[in-house]
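2.7 Reproducibility. Because tokenized structures are sensitive to small changes in the input, we list the exact sequence used for non-specific serine/threonine protein kinase, including any N-terminal residues retained from the expression construct. No trimming or masking was applied before prediction.
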Amino acid sequence: MELCSGGTLVDLMNANVNVRWPEPFIWSAFAKVVSLVAELHARNPPLTHNDLKIENMLMATKINPMVCVCITSTNGFTTPL
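Resulting structure tokens (single pass, no recycling of outputs):
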């Protein structure tokens, strides 16, 4: 596991409120989240991330966001209420 000493993505955004974020950085962060969710859902049994939010995007470096993973497994599907 990699040490993410850069704080969270929220910390970085709050420290740079007036900065226009480069589009490649935004797409890269979004792609990491989508790929993680796709990988978790493709497993057998499928895994779910129970706390997917911007606060769980940790910064390994100032340009490399990582997703903090809190996952659970299920052996069936439930119908939403």
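The longest strand covers residues 57-61.
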